[in-house]
Queue: 4 jobs
Job 1
Amino acid sequence: MTPPPQDRPGGAIGQPMNRVDGPAKVTGRATYAAEHPLPNLAHAVLVTSAIPHGRVRRIDTTAALAVPGVLTVLTHQSPGVTLRPVEAPYPKGPAGSGLLPLQSDEILQRGQVVAVVVADTLEQAEHAATLIEPEYEAAPFIGTLAESLTSDREDLRAPVEQADYTRGEPEQAYRAAEVQLDLTYTTPQEQHNPLELHGTLAVWESTTRLTVYEPSQWILAPQHTLAHHFGLDPEAVRVVSPYIGGGFGSKAATWAHLPLAALAARVVQRPVKLARSRAQEFAGVGYRPATKQRYQVGATQDGRVTSVLLHADSQAGMHNDFPEQVVNITRMLYDVPHMRTAQRLARTHAGEGIMMRAPGEASGSFALESAMDELAYAVGLDPLEVRLRNYAETEPESGLPFSSKLLRECYAQAAQRFGWARRTPTPGSMRDGDTLIGWGMASVTYPVYASAATARARLFADGRAEIEAGSQDIGTGTYSILTQIAADGLGVAPAQVRVFLGDTRYPKNAYSGGSRTAASVGDAVMAASLAVRQDLALLAVHDPASPLHGLTPEALEMRAGHLYAWADPARGEALSVILERAGRDHLEAYREVLPVGGERKNLQEMMSAKNASVPADAGGYARHSFGAIFVEVRVDPDFMTPRVSRMVGVYDVGRVLNHKTARSQLIGGMIWGVSMALHEQTDVDPTTGLVLNDNLAEYHVPVNADIGEVDVTLLDVPDPHASHLGVRGAGELGTVSTAAAVANAVYHATGKRIRDLPVSIDKLLSPEDR
């Protein structure tokens, strides 16, 4: 049977359907990883290092072991704690860094685990943990990006080879430019802080079979990591993760608590729950690396960029090479004939950096879009006009055509909805009474990542349907959109579909990151659903007793549990009748789907927990989502307190599967960008190297009162070169460039250019730009 037209009236795809998992979440019926009720459950608590670098000279566990209810205390000296090092699944966490927990007395990062206390109750374990006071031999440490860059230690620097890029003659073009700008921007270390803490519930079903309940953005990663650590067959490790309370990238890797929970469960021979505290979320589970970006921009007096020289530094741990690839967005967004980009890692004892919502683009767009704004003021042009004059019709780096690019339409609609034409260009010229008003804007883009995917569909005689996919819903609405896709593919109502996710027993899939899940897993669900419907049609047309006998499957339609002829809707019969005559109670199909431009190896890589991503330029097209963000800020002229009063975003994300969940994702991303602009930074004590604001009272994120009006428009134009359903991701796009638009609006309001995030009162009160 041919795929159903996606614009058919009454179809589920595209409808603003409520989240199917919403009732379970608001009533408490949704069971998160740490909430699974297991009999005879023991509790584990981590003891983390009080220094970021050095060694454990001595660790006395006697007092802790004497606490009633304590079952064991694990340290690097304990027998049976050896973990086999592995080449980590992608994305790399500690399993791929060489820094496995409790394997030696060496301390190489803040928050490193030095002991695990296991007890009958959480309270007993927490109390016993306070009685462990290791003696340390401290060593000099590098706590921040700035300290790393000012150090004379060359071993702290490492090139990011994929960032090195040159086109044209950038130095010569810069020297010859009529307008020359030399600008440096910085972004701070930021923490993911999902509402659900990281943690693991581990139970050994036998000496060779392990089950873990782990909030994971990629359930194959803990499965393969634990199999390597303990010498098990990967299929003997089951990972269960049906609901995830946010991850934002931090739950795509495997961290120390995962193998330690399994170790503890093996030692005490009981199920063990190990959950991090909120303070422990600030070290040991990743962060967005701090960056420093120097832009040298050459341009003509009429605002055409002729040359860009970009050198970036990004923070990293001592034992991982995760690059916050800030240079990529600069290489593709504008039509710049001469360009050179370079980036290097600057190592610190902060631990492993990891992806965080819109990795690379979030930090890179702040610098790029701030620089474009500065250029507009330097040449006396409207910031939107400067972007239009440098519009790239084809992808500048590869020369490929874009699979779809509606950025001009985004600019036009967003500007109209915002009222940009009423802007007066002079900084400080717009007021509401005494309050300073500032308007800023920025271009938005994010690459399309796609992966191989698999799914299984079942259709029962009573009209019920089931979908199984070993993917994850990290709070984005995956349960809902897969329900809608399956409903249209099978020809049943969404209420008849039940989706099962988050279990390694289900068909394997890639990680939920890079905004890939909707397109990748959605394609597989549609393929499996269509295969089931095709099998049903074949049963009918080949059955002489069926009124549909002799027709072709393509001539049939399935709706509301009935199969009928397109040309004669009265000619048909119920699904249950067809299956009863065939002696079947259900039909089932499993499908493996390669992304557009993908190869068979992508599926094989995914099955073995390797990186299964297809490049954004696969299939002969450059594939990106686009958008435009316009922001209004209000600044108190006496106290210089900036507040975002209004945001308008228009986004081109391909076909929209669910307008409600997609809009929710973009609103969340825009708010995240406001947080990046005005609130977030990790403060490190220069004396101890530890995080000072390791709590949600002092690590600031926006609350409802910080966010004004948010207006989001989705263009909803399918992109057939991005995925088989024409879908592109939306989850990370909203974060990109929002911080720049806010900072640009602050400049328009105050005349103060803040190049170091976050924009804060002290910087606005400073006599100099910062």
Note: The mean pLDDT is 95.
Job 2
Amino acid sequence: MKTHVQTENQDNSNFQHLQSIMLSKRSAYYVKSESSSNPVSAEIAKEIFDEIDTEMLRLGYVMSAHLKLSLKQLSEESLIEEAKSLIYTLSEAKGDLNNFVTLHANFPYTAQDRSYHDNRAGVIFSHIFGLNAKPTSLQVKLPCGCSFDDQLFDLSMFNACPVCQHQVEGLSDNVEGEEQGTVEFSLNDNIVKLSNVGLASKADLFEVFGNLLASSTSVTAFDKEFVKQVIIAFKEEALEYIPVSIAHKEQLCFLTGVISEHLPDAIELMRHKFKTYTDVLRLAAYLSGFDVSLEACKKIRFKLSRKQRKLVMTLLDRHMLMEDMIRRRGLFLALGRYLHVGAESNKHPHAAHAFNVLRNDPKSIKTFNSKKEALLMDAMGVQQTPKGTIPKRDVEIHLHNTSLKVTIGDTVGDKTLKNLLAICSEKHESAESSEKLATDLKERGEAFTALVSLLSSRPGEFARNIDLMLRIGDALGDDYTESVINALEKSVVQELKISQLFQLRAYFNSRVVNEGYRYFIPKGNRAKLFYLEEDKRDSLSQANANKVSLCLLAEINKRLSQKESLGTVYIDPALKNIVLPLSMRSMASSLSLYPRGSRIPLEKDADILRMFMYWKGEVDFDLSAKALDESWNTMKDIGYWTYWDCDPEDTYSDWSQDEWARFSGDIQDAPLGAAECIDINIKKCADMGIRYVVMFVNIFSGGKFEDYNAFVGVMERKDAKVGELFEPSSVSQKLDLVGESKGCVPLILDVQDMSYFVCDMDSSTRADGLNSSTESKKMINIAKSTEAMSRTNPTMYDLALANAVARGQRVTLVDKPIEEIVNDEVVRHEIDFRFDMDFAMQLDTVMGKWLVD
């Protein structure tokens, strides 16, 4: 019977990607086959569905009635095809079908202990110093070239050479494509997570497609590929679901590029949506095989077809702000040379003129930033040096009888200007100096007023600089601070996107608390943390922070109250743990996609958290972990350089006093594919005072993540002695290792709270030989920053509460009908709308409908 649903390698078809992302976003499967007039017989259908159900249970899934009913309408041939595709999609999501073998074949019963460590070291030293074994001993020689006494290692307990740790013929298991996991759950006293798989219709697929394009925030690379595959699969039909307004420019340029490649006759649909020169540059970059974000594009070798060149030239031949071209002058000049813009001056005069000015007279282009910087310097009374830098020095300020110490040159973000606060020192020794001070203050005040007016013309810039303006205003006087808040209330807040309102409000709600450090995640395809050991910004008063927060809240309530009523609303308090998806660009594809900083609870009866990593290739991937206390101090590390210090007679249940984790062993070369695991004993960690466990994966030498098939994840186990090494049904999270990095922190376990933080942040891009010990400082900084995100970033609960207050008639935090007494009678109000975890998991809906105006 296995022939019916046995998984097999699927081609990288359009529909395979669509099915994978619908499973991730809707927990549903898209049936691509059409219903048949001659459906499969009941007898054969029962046989096939029995196999499907068994396979799905093994993987941790059950089939919904709607999906089963849809599959029953297919012919026998189509049903078998869909069954194979369904199981393949589910297996891929959980990380099944791979050669999931560890160095120690009997892990966790055998692990990297002292005995193995000493024996391996002895063999290596013998080889180095030319020491031969005793003549009476039997020598084992493996194909890798390693030889050793046959009494040292029981080769039946290893999946790779125990000395060089390379996979070798005749020793390494190869279970790729074979079933793993336990189906007899009655015999498996372990945690089994069963997820219901529903039916995804074509309408559902197009809904996700439209939501991703309508989002005002960035989306993942996996989402972009989904959009592309929808266009390829459904062609003109998909065009009907493109939203009228595409707020995010990267989505606009990516979509236009896809249409240009696959539906060139429909390109007119997109022309009018381009408003800036940067949009056109993004499009040209995509068509040339580069990323539309332009963040990693220092140089672009443009390569366009004749039709694409014509499209780009037409889009450039418009009256648009030339300051866009100054920001990326080098890339625009390269594009102009490639397009031979000068030779096209008759056909495209505006484009030719713009590039001529950019090339020959760039200083004539007055930019918004140059005006802002000049006013900012005048408002602070700081003179720029010829090179545009500001010397860093501490100065004492005596202004309005208030003394404070600031650092000139305290720069974060916008090079030398953003978040810079400096007031020149003045002494009140004479009437002349007092008069000079008054004149200086007046000039600064005038410059500050002009700065507020200028930034008000661009709401996004105002929002990015409001913290700085409030700090400068505090130094100049209360009237200036009030002018910032008045400008925000009267002319700026109405123009901000609702996603920006939530983000800015969360920022000011936590702004008055100084964490003692600062962190930034610059825009890019992968998240890389910039961490500052100190926060040198001057504090904001609680009163001013509250004024800004209330102004933003009032605007949020005003906009939401204009939408349709939600009736009786339920809000799940667990939404406080899920961060709003305001920047998803750098997130890797995963089993369950959560925004970075979200806190995901573990099952209450989980005793063991098994961290795992899989890769395939002739390269050394390493898995390690770092244990931290409440104050972020390192307590323990575990990885290839540590070992289980135990008695040879110990069993798995005999955890030694200081043993908090167990490592499966290091494999340094895996052409067949291999895994490494770390079992975290949650109770022992708590008893030892361990608060956080930071997971770290890296390539020890050679290559980058994007060069290999690799992923990481966690299994929640009640009893690690029961079941198999890899139990798909216990996998609670799995995410791909992608990008140009060589090190990544996927998640952080909070032992005390029985949860883990979603991190997915890169640690290193170049260095070899890394582990959780060498990367200790970076890992701690990443962990602290991720934990801070969970407390300070806006959450799904904030979104739900704002909508409930503005649009709900009644609100409850308990998922049951509300009863109230009206005219001495009990009136029962059923729940009309639920803000629950199902709502939170549909990130595309949140981004495309709830976080747009």
Note: Confidence is low (pLDDT under 50) at residues 387-430.
Job 3
Amino acid sequence: MKPLVISILLLAMWQASLGQTKNTLVSDVDVQNQIASQLANYPQEKLHLHVDRNHYVPGENIWFKAYPVDALSHLSPTKSRYVYVELISPADTLISRVKIRPQDGMYHGHIFLSDIVPEGEYTLRAYTRYMENLGSEYFYRKKIYIGSLSADTEQERKAKKKKASRLKDDYDVSFFPEGGNLLAGTLCKVAFKAMNRNGYSEYITGEVVNEAGDMMALIKSHHAGVGVFSFIPASGGKYYLNCVNDKGLSKRIELPEAKSGARSLLTYWRNDRLFISKQQSFDMQLDLPTYLLVQSRGVVLYFGAWDKHKSYISFTQEQLPPGVIQAILFDDQMNPLSERLVFSKNVQMETAKLDIQTDKTSYQTREQITSTIRVSDQDDLSLLGNISVSVTDDKDITIDPYESILTSLLLTSELKGYIESPGYYFEEDTDKRNLELDYLMMVHGWKRYNIPEVLKGTINQPEIPFEEGDILSGSVKSLFRAKPVPNSEVSVITSSGEFGLAQTDENGLFSFASMEIPDSTTYFVQSLGKKGSPRVELVLNEHIFPALSNLLVKPLPVLTEQLKADSTSNPFLEKAEQRAKYDEDMRVVHLANVEVVARKIEKQKVQLPWYSQGSDISIDLETIEKRHASLVMHLVQNIPGVRVSGNGYIHIRGSKDNPLVLIDGIPMEWPDVLYSPYDSPLEAVNSSDIERIDVYKGPSASIFGVRGAHGAIAITTRRGGSGILDSQELNKLVLSPLGYQQPAEFYSPKYDTPKLRYTSGPDYRTTIFWKPDIVTDEDGKASFDFYSSDFSTTYSMILEGITADGKIVHAVKKIQVE
């Protein structure tokens, strides 16, 4: 079902639910139509990445599955054909980038960590080209840690500890009045957030004082450094926060100035009902007309004029969809006055139930573990879905309990800024956690659509379309004045044998669509002007990737504290080091750089021309030498489909005229033979000088334009030549763009015979099992199996996924190995 249809159904469902209250439904049709138009013209995407674990060592693979979904309906997949996943260093430099295309509708792949990747915290970033419309803030990001197999010296450990301590000492505090305005002369609730320089939340205590030093409020931060206090600011007054962190560092920070002539929205939950009220500064009239809009993910839940006789508007939690809800107060000109976010926690409405059963309660080492799952809705009806599963050893690593596909799609993807440990708010359904979740809503903004601008008729359009396939595009220009060259012939051939031919339009533009090529493929592109002239310039449109700087991804405290130890105290690094010793039978010792000077005599390898990959028939040096032909003509006439006449003329089967002949990339025109001592340009070459002969028939010869209409014979001599793409040949380009990653399979050993179970080498796996392509059947069921490793421990099995109707799947199960 299309996302827009889902949006309409969701709109109808929630509005029907709200219609059961005394409040008016979306009465302003223009408002509803404007936002519906924005959704239709600019649908948006979200993306979640399920990764097998959070930390690695060099030489391992990072296994992942991407879940690109429609931002409103959570339906997957979207129109985007490709997902890009990047590994970025602590210094914001690119380590690796892979391009993933769907396999049976699912996006999964891996990133290999080379042996030279240094220790540190790295960022995984994932996005589609279409998501670039909103900027990199909307991309998925995740921190991972890459450890080192070489133990730090005592001096290095002390230096790291000192640096980390120094960074953590300093901190800053930001303030967020409820509704966005600190109202003069009115009791105001103000949220604050304390963060240290290292990106972690900071625990602080303190007091708010006025200029005279009188205490106005006491403060104390809660989870993620967030807290709330209330006081009545006077117009023109100055207020300060005197605070101290748990390391004893005191700071004095000025609060924002109180506003006159302003209004703010207030919200609170009571007995599973959301109450929305408003207040104004002391100087505002009470009867000025205002309008309230309530929306979730772009779907209008309520819009109407505020009845001045009512102090609040309320909704039951069942009337609100799960996730972030935005309430906006407008004046009668549709100018926004105040905004407040709340979170509706009835997540069961958009989550599926996942039942996990294993064939035993505990297992021996190297024993088969068989698991069966069933996915259903809250009414126990079976659901189709695609799921990924990771199983890791709890002795090696601690799974991150605070990040999942649930928190990613419902919380972090909807808010501006970094959200620390989002799963914390869902771990327990207590008043304390729910209150802290509401504090979180006060310190972050909603980041999808600019609703006030939409209501004024400004409908945003995406500049970058959905990437529905690979496109190679560019332009052809004249060498004189760089004017567009219309009707120019552009050909492309790849190292994998793909071929394409295009013609420029009146503006000199061309494109090749649907050339889906795997990574590490080389493209050879050539353009020809009128009458096959090479005197043109070929310009290709470059794929510019998003900038890597200013990622603003904060570290994961659980991850960092566990891994920033040397291998003598870290089980994960201990096992990784043992595995490396076993695999290599020796420790790798990194020596200082030295310069080695030596001479080596070797045969010079001839570099082949750019067009050699696309030939129909190739004769290499070994074949040429075996034939012992003294004349080139004798070599050519033995090639299937090539006929040589007595007068030296050559014909390729299916053609009545001479083919194009190239020697080291230089075209040898047949008319020149009339003024030469040779009957054929081939006679100008000694057979003992030939490295390779390539023959092009029919479509493959079109890379040479009209000159290849009768086929082509290309000879590469042992000295090579200009066919290697001289830098002056502006009509030719060789490039290797990022292609899609070839699928790879996670290795999972099988100990299904006594010999394998008892005599094979040690099993040092940390990721015990990874399977990204589980699909449930019509009964909502699927099964999979794997073998335990060599250690008595517990495993954490994490399953994540999306059902066919957009419901979120997430579950964790423990497995005992004795």
Note: The mean pLDDT is 85.
Job 4
Amino acid sequence: TLASQQQNGQPEVSYDYDLWDRLAKVRGPLQFDLSIYRDNLGRVLSHADQHSGVKHFVWNAFGDLIEERAADGASVRYEYDDIGRVIAQEMGGKITKWSYDSGPYATGKISGITRSDGLTETFKYDNRGRLKLRSRVFDGVQHELLAEYDEFGRVSSLKYPLSEIVLDYKYGQDGQPIKVEHHDKGTIWEANEFDASGAVLREQVGGNVNLKITLDPTDGLPVKVQAERPGDDALISLEYYHDIVGNLVRRIDRVQRNESFYEYDEFDRLIEWEDTSSTDHFTRYHYDLAGNMLTSSNRFSASYGDGMLGPHALSEITLMNDEARPRKGQAIEYDKRGSITYYGKRRIAYGLHGLPTNIEMEIGERTALSQVNQYDFNNDRLRSKTVTSKSCWMSLRTCSTEEERLYFGRLVETQSTPRECIIKSNVYARGKLKAVIETASAQDCKLVLKYGTPSQAETMRWLVLAEPMGRINQYLASDGSKVIKMDYTPYGLTKGSSLSGSESRITARSFGGLYFDKDTGLFYSNARLYEPRLGRFLSSDKNDELQAGSQYLNRYSYALNNPLRYGDSTGFVPGEYSVSSPSERAGREKFFNEKKEWADRGIERSRGEREIREGRYNGRERMESLPKLELPKIGDSYSRSSERSYSVLPRPPVAPVGESIDRNVASQLVGSGNGFDVDFAIWVAMVAPGSFWDYKTQGSFYEEAGNFNYGATGAALGLPESVLLRAAGAVQECCGAYKPEFGHAWDSTGSFGDDPRDQRDIRLGIEYTRHRDLIRFLDGEW
């Protein structure tokens, strides 16, 4: 099979497939070439492209990944128990071990993780198998995350680690989260009105700030956002205008009294931005066919792919009006995995999964900065230690300051300096940041973490007001004493005056869900570093098999060069912001599932030669013709190797309206109370072809969700993986679209009689249930 995508009649991207209809080769613009080699069972043996080099994967007879080797020779090795659970990992000289089934109610669940550098985590469960305690010991100090549940298996309270704040959660009759309370200290967030899709239309933050969102009834895109506090002037009054394909073309800020206008090319890439608040705020962006930003009119021009580098690798920059960044002719260096190791007086070292471990940079002639990062078992940042050194005035000695930060997922961050200890607790509702509770103490952080927060510590609650496209607009002190207003260029630079030290500490999470590191001037997105001044990541995307057109082949560009429509808070996959979804993640999954659906079913996505005539741009009429854009067929939508190495944990696909895979899993974990036989009979009736959980009956778009749900709920019921896979194959061979190459349910070749793509989705569902509690805690989605 060969599919191609064209622009102006010239071949742009071609896709080759093997006999099993799996993606095998991609040829992109500017001689980009990507190859995937598989064995007869569809397992990836190697993956090669110009940026990340050649990666090799070794599997055992049971289909478990036992070794992963990067282009520079670094490797990860895995060991498994008899039922396919990972029990050991060796990476970079560190050995990590997993234990299972130990302790009350822990059968089939993870019990603990230990690493040779001293990091340990233990997990305890209640009598219904729900995670009630996650305990972490690091650097000799124990941190605990505690959860309690209501009678329906939903989290009713959460006690944060490090800060020890307690949050209470309330739900509506339909199971939707409607309120988050700071235990005995008032309401933090409350939803007051929903639309039919579940999007929150009216909410209250901090008990006295009312936020209202108006959506377009035809496409669900935001039209207006208003926020106000009774008795005060409006805090936010924003209006949005979109073109026919959903790109933001105009934004009006009634409070700040300015307007922004945006234009796009045929690939939906942002090419022009104008802000009426200043004559300096006009920028044109130019890209090549591969999605590389060639110029930003008032910032830089760049060239790519010089010499041995791939076509997306930055090779030279010429910067305008900024002495702090590299000028033309300065070196840009890469490692063998496609990560920038030196640029702009910064030297960066990376771990195996591309995570930045060391950053060194020069700040002026007399000052240098060194930052060391450590990561936990889920590749989330665990500790960051920054030392700033400078030559003391009128002295030959060196003066230095040291700052250390500890993290517990996205929930808690501590900041320790010689003078104080700051603990920030992030409060999320429906996957979005709603408040930051800050506690400041004059004591050393190690003492605070070991013996608790002293009674004289000062606590401040900051309320967060965000826009639908993921940008935080304001941080409000709950007592009304202070307002920190945020505004950004499209690619994330802060507009206006710089923030003070305390303000930058509060507003670290500000643009698109990314974490801004004021010391290095870079955004941290868990998987990679993002440079807002260049509008690109400093390392290539490690998610290997998510290609859906030429712009997705660029492993460095941020949000497909459309940062007003897409976000990439994980650093792995750009996702469309969705008001109706709990988080950007759901929008991301919907976006890729839609593309997979069009391609897998042979449906051509064509905009055609549509004309858009809209009165905008200060009343100017604009005619725009959008050329036909065909989407080629794509292969796997998940990288099995990345998922298995636990750098990416599987998340549920989008289910039909009113359905929730996570809720289905919870129902199986709780059970009916009438014994396994009854629970099993109910489950079989639910997943049977044509029944309630056979989601493809509601449209082929939901077939992946149905397979994922089958694996996830079956695993929650306690059924072994082999039973679930073979049962699915038996049904396919009996009653589905069976092909001889699928094999048979009873043998060990092929895919047990089932479509390999369906088996993949079932396996992902099983993996999700195995790690469900960890995923939800780490994502802050309570």
Note: The radius of gyration is 26 Å.
